[in-house]
């Protein structure tokens, strides 16, 4: 302080406040006569002065990130709040240049709800006007409030303090912000500005100091510094204000003191040397690189449906889809030398890092773990708030550590808790005094959040840890704790989520009965049957840590989620984590689980699905049958323009369709094969005067059977449907609705015409439809969902598109031959019967078997081979005494190899099989060649019960949602997404044919696989047929899909992906979930290497990259291919017919070698074998080694290499022993001489060739050779007569 200041220190707080107001007034009246520093006073300062002096209102201004928060306290305890830009303080504040302008009321407000509503309406109307100044708005509001309150004879709250009293109280507690101190120094004549120094944070240099007179604000100079970077002020080299330490001797407000929880002791909110010293909510400050305590609401007040005026800020709102995790991580107070806590903690942190849940509740946390947690980079970078209990902080003290102190913490990602409370977990007081060894009572963490999906709704999340059985009268303590907790919580929130370690199992009836009476939803029971999956989170029979810590060795479900809510909710996912063991002592080879408890993770949709009459699942007859149906409906059905001809299956249905809902529907339909139905006469419902076309009895049974399956999937929709139909489902097609004449109630048929169906209607049901409408538009088709496990073969006779498109595909031979398709189907059925003979109920007790197709055949497309998967699943329950030799063989370590050998032996004895081989390529499979040249590949997939035990499992062969069958669920996820499966078939067939023609097909060569192209096609079909782009108004839009429309769809495909940012973006289905699997392209993290230069993600967890074999070179070639087609279509669309353009696209030539390799060289690899199947096996092994060699050439040798997308097969008649030859080419931009001199390349090439020798099934007839030649030499050789070509894959 300067020597002019002592008199200021002797003033009382009240005198200082009044003195400050007088000086502000004096300053503003003399603005034109003062120095340039005085010109710093802004319109904001003027507004504050006016509100203080003219309207007698209190104003609070606080920093809020890059903005300033402005709050005016109006009469009757109303508050006007907004944010303004501190860099634009020279502008008059109006309703158009402030942000988040809102009017709220406090709990002390004495206005009635009716008056409050009138004031809010008046406020909303006022702010709609343009350029209303904030001062005028406040003045009008004050007048309106006074007018309404006086008319209703409402008096202000008597407890309200006068202005001077409020200023005195605020001065005692308020810590002045940066701008307030700056303004104080500017106008205080007792302070010499030349003696003042400002310390601020430079992002690159750290803390810097500058003279006060040299300071430039953002508004004044292009290189000005934002005020929120100021860290301290000095006068005569003495710090008088410090933001970090909350230190202020300039205005008299010392370090802030606060009371937190129920602790009566006053404590300063500080983090000394980044050591956590007090309980509270902490957040990492990137600028100071410290964990800073946050200012959080600590008053616990009711907030239910009757009290919704305290608006939750957006930063405290939970997302609609929220990822929770709770885990008891096991302290180290017992068995310390056996449980290796340091090593376990590291694995726990790695698991948390991999999952990054939104809300994490941890129990048995000590200060040792807290220090490790707070040092984690992911916790800081992912913007987590950390709620820390005082017992954890005390556990670092030796005195409390000897008493085994520990506690809970709560983490929230990108969500700031609206309020946090540390509440005692009370038990019976007498028992507490006798049995508790700890000097403090156990506590819970209660964190309050808002809900994005429900306006003004909140949820209280409680992290608790009840007493264990090591305490005396543990069951009574737990019951009393729950009683005390719930009795206090019931009046606080409508939504309550309890999560943590409850320390009792399902056989502890006292606690179970209590919870049952409280109407809590146990989320584990919502998902699982306890008899099938008991959910033991404390499992000494399997958990190695629990074996050490358990006294009784009893398995129990002690960790839970309990939800009490008036909201609808959906559980997307609920399972246990921490089941794996990790090495904690490599020297003694000791492995442990991360904790003696398994963690529980849950993905919860807090926004329940809304059921609406604007959505339905229906059967729609083919368009050619509509004529006689619509001729009746047009006259007699008022809903003629709103509904298409249909048979309702589910009505009403959900308003929104997410991926899970549609995927479940598609999986259900795989078990329902297409069926035929007949409608033969018109009947009526006498009770509601509706005439309908009646189904035959057989058809009625088929439709009712489908309804019963859908009912299991959508019970809530069916309940509403049955209420409307007297609890009965009758499949029918409505054609007329009549109004009943009130004077003819005794004769309801009197005014009804006689309706007759001239011809019976017969059609095949191969799809059902999800339809939707709006208030202004009729029903349109959102999704066409096909029936059956295999999509109908794409063929000319289909009526799924216009004949012009079918003629084009037929002329280009894009349809699969019917004979070829039937041969594949026959072979699949033949193999299926063969496998059922081996693996049946007679030979298996522990396992069941299934056999599926996948790949092109499942999608109804033409493929070279038939891809299949043989699945063995372990049963949940089986009689161990009846376990067979097959069961024990499958359960052995060599299970997959054993199964492959059995299948191979059984297939070889089939009459129509030429050859059967076990191939070890990218993965183990069996390749079968039949006499008619049909090739079948069989993959073996074994599903152990341990993998399925903790997942959502349906009683349907395909409904293993989180543990999908190889290849099968990939196809089904696409079919549930594409909206129009048959148009998808046409587009994908076209794209695949083009990519093969131009040499951009094949993932083993570094290009895109068939499934990658399928994902790209699915996304285009989904977006193209969106209701806002090309809405499917009617079934006729699908059945009459023309060649010109197909041309537009193809053009959309190539335009979309030629402009896509492949370098930084990922392509994936359901992009709304991208936030949970976010790829941060702004951070250059060399430790993270994404596989594949293009990222086209699987639609199912773990969302692997289907294009992981692509390199930067092949990515550029593929994008160049997309652009070539897009440019060609744009250039010729006005000159050529659409059919001609599409044909030319299919006949574009492969550019191999590329022009970049025009002066380069060719590496030619030649493989030989004695049969086509042996050669296929030999090629399969080499393919599995190609990717590594290609990447080495690019990354290690720094060569430009282009790969061909196929092996060229031929037959050498002159060599009997090795008559089948395969040739593969690599094109390089460098010359032969340069490549030959590249030692790194020679090393990589030798490593690649050495891999051929490692093939375990290699025979003497499997040979290989290679040569490096110039491009000119290769072209000369290519002009020579070629050997006879054979069928290629």
From TrEMBL:
Give GO terms: molecular function aspect only: catalytic activity
Q: Which domain of life is it from?
A: Eukaryota
Domain Endonuclease/exonuclease/phosphatase: residue ranges: 325-505
* InterPro entries found in the cross-reference section: Cyclic_Pdiesterase (IPR009097), Endo/exonu/phosph_ase_sf (IPR036691), Endo/exonuclease/phosphatase (IPR005135), MJ1316 (IPR040459), NT_sf (IPR043519)
Native species: Didymodactylos carnosus
MJ1316 RNA cyclic group end recognition domain ranges (all copies): 176-243
Q: Which Pfam families has this protein been placed in?
A: 2_5_RNA_ligase2, Exo_endo_phos, MJ1316
Write down what this protein is called.
Polynucleotide adenylyltransferase
């Amino acid at each position: 302080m300067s020597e002019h200041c002592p008199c200021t220190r002797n003033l009382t707080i009240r005198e200082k406040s009044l003195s400050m107001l007088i000086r502000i007034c004096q300053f503003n009246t003399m603005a034109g006569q003062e120095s340039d520093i005085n010109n710093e006073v802004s319109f904001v300062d003027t507004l504050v002065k006016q509100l203080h002096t003219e309207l007698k209102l209190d104003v609070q201004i606080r920093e809020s990130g890059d903005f300033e928060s402005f709050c005016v306290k109006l009469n009757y305890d109303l508050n006007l709040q907004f944010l303004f830009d501190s860099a634009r303080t020279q502008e008059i504040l109006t309703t158009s240049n402030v942000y988040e302008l809102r009017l709220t009321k406090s709990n002390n407000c004495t206005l009635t709800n009716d008056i409050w509503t009138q004031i809010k309406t008046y406020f909303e109307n006022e702010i709609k006007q343009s350029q209303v100044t904030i001062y005028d708005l406040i003045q009008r509001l004050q007048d309106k409030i006074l007018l309404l309150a006086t008319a209703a004879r409402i008096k202000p709250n008597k407890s309200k303090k006068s202005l001077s009293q409020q200023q005195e109280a605020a001065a005692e507690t308020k810590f002045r912000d940066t701008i307030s101190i700056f303004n104080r120094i500017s106008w205080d004549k007792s302070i010499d500005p030349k003696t003042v120094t400002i310390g601020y944070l430079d992002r690159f240099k750290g803390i810097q100091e500058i003279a006060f007179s040299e300071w430039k604000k953002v508004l004044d100079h292009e290189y000005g510094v934002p005020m929120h970077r100021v860290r301290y002020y000095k006068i005569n080299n003495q710090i008088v204000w410090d933001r970090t330490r909350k230190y202020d001797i300039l205005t008299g407000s010392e370090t802030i003191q606060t009371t937190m929880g129920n602790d009566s002791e006053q404590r300063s909110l500080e983090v000394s040397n980044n050591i956590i010293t007090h309980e509270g909510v902490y957040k990492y400050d990137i600028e100071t690189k410290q964990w800073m305590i946050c200012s959080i609401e600590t008053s616990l007040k009711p907030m239910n449906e009757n009290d919704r005026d305290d608006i939750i800020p957006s930063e405290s709102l939970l997302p609609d889809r929220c990822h929770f995790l709770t885990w008891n991580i096991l302290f180290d107070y017992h068995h310390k030398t056996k449980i290796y806590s340091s090593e376990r903690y590291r694995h726990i942190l790695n698991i948390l890092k991999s999952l990054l849940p939104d809300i994490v509740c941890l129990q048995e946390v000590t200060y040792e773990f807290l220090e490790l947690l707070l040092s984690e980079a992911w916790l800081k970078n992912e913007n987590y708030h950390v709620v820390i209990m005082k017992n954890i902080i005390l556990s670092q003290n030796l005195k409390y550590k000897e008493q085994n102190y520990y506690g809970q913490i709560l983490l929230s990602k990108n969500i700031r808790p609206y309020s946090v409370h540390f509440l005692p977990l009370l038990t019976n007081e007498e028992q507490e005094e006798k049995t508790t060894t700890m000097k403090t009572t156990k506590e819970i963490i209660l964190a309050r959040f808002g809900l994005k999906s429900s306006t003004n709704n909140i949820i209280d999340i409680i992290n608790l840890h009840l007493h264990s059985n090591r305490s005396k009268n543990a069951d009574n303590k737990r019951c009393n704790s729950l009683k005390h907790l719930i009795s206090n919580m019931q009046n606080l929130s409508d939504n309550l989520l309890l999560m943590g370690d409850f320390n009792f199992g399902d056989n502890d009836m006292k606690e179970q009965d209590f919870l049952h009476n409280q109407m809590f939803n146990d989320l584990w029971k919502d998902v699982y049957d306890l008899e099938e999956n008991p959910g033991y989170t404390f499992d000494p029979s399997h958990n190695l840590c629990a074996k050490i810590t358990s006294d009784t060795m009893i398995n129990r479900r002690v960790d839970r989620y309990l939800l009490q809510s008036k909201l609808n909710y959906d559980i997307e996912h609920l399972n246990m984590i921490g089941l794996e063991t990790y090495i904690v002592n490599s020297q003694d080879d000791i492995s442990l689980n991360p904790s003696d408890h398994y963690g529980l993770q849950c993905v919860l949709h807090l926004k329940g699905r809304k059921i609406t009459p604007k959505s339905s699942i229906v059967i729609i007859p083919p368009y050619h049958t509509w004529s006689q149906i619509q001729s009746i409906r047009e006259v007699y059905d008022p809903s003629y323009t709103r509904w298409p001809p249909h048979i309702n299956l589910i009505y009403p249905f959900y308003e929104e369709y997410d991926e899970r809902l549609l995927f479940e529907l598609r999986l259900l339909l795989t078990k329902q094969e297409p069926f035929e139905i007949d409608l033969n006469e018109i009947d009526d419902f006498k009770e509601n005067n509706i005439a309908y076309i009646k189904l035959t009895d057989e058809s009625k049974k088929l439709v009712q059977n489908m309804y019963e399956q859908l009912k299991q999937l959508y019970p809530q929709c069916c309940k509403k449907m049955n209420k409307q139909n007297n609890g009965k489902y009758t499949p029918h097609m409505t054609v007329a609705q009549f109004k009943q004449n009130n004077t003819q109630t005794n004769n309801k048929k009197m005014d009804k015409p006689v309706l007759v169906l001239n011809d019976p209607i017969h059609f095949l049901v191969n799809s059902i439809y999800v339809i939707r409408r709006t208030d202004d538009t009729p029903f349109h088709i959102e999704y066409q969902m096909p029936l059956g496990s295999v999509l109908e073969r794409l063929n000319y006779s289909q009526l799924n598109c216009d004949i012009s498109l079918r003629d084009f595909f037929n002329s280009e031979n894009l349809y699969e031959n019917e004979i070829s398709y039937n041969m594949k189907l026959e072979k699949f059925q033949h193999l299926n019967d063969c496998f059922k003979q081996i693996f049946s109920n007679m030979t298996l007790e522990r396992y069941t078997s299934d056999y599926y197709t996948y790949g092109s055949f499942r999608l109804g497309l033409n493929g070279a081979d038939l891809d299949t998967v043989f699945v063995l699943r372990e049963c949940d329950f089986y009689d161990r005494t009846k376990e067979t030799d097959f069961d024990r063989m499958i359960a052995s370590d060599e299970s997959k190899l054993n199964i492959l050998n059995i299948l191979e032996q059984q297939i070889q004895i089939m009459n129509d099989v030429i050859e059967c081989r076990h191939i070890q390529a990218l993965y183990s499979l069996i390749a079968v060649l039949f006499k008619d040249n049909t090739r079948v590949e069989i993959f073996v997939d074994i599903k152990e019960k341990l993998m399925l035990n903790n997942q959502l499992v349906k009683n349907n062969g395909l409904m293993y949602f989180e543990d999908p069958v190889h290849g099968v669920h990939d196809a089904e996820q696409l079919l549930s997404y594409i909206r129009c499966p048959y148009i998808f078939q046409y587009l994908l067939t076209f794209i695949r044919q083009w990519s093969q023609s131009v040499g951009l097909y094949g993932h083993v060569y570094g290009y895109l696989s068939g499934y990658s192209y399928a994902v790209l096609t699915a996304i285009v079909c989904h977006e193209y047929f969106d209701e806002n782009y090309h809405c499917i108004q009617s079934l006729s839009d699908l059945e009459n899909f023309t060649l010109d429309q197909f041309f537009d769809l193809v053009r959309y495909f190539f335009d979309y992906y030629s402009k896509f940012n492949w370098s930084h973006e990922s392509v994936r289905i359901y992009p709304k979930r991208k936030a949970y699997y976010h790829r941060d392209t702004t951070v250059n993290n060399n430790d993270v290497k994404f596989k594949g230069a293009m990222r086209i993600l699987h639609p199912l967890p773990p969302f692997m990259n289907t294009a992981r074999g692509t390199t930067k070179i092949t990515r550029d070639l593929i994008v160049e291919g997309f652009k070539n087609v897009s440019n060609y279509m744009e250039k010729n669309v006005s000159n050529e017919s659409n059919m001609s353009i599409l044909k030319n696209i299919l006949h574009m030539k492969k550019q191999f070698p590329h022009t970049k390799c025009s002066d380069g060289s060719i590496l030619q690899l030649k493989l030989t074998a004695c049969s086509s199947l042996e050669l296929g096996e030999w090629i399969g092994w080499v393919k599995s080694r190609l990717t590594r060699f290609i990447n080495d050439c690019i990354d290690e040798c720094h060569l430009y290499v282009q790969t061909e997308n196929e092996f060229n097969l031929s037959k050498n008649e002159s060599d009997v022993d090795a008559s089948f030859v395969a040739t593969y080419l690599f094109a390089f931009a460098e010359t032969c001489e340069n490549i030959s001199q590249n030692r790194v390349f020679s090393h990589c090439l030798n490593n690649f060739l050495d891999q051929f020798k490692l093939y375990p099934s290699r025979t003497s007839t499997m040979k290989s050779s290679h040569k490096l030649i110039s491009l000119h030499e290769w072209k000369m050789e290519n002009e020579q007569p070629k050997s006879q070509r054979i069928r290629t894959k």
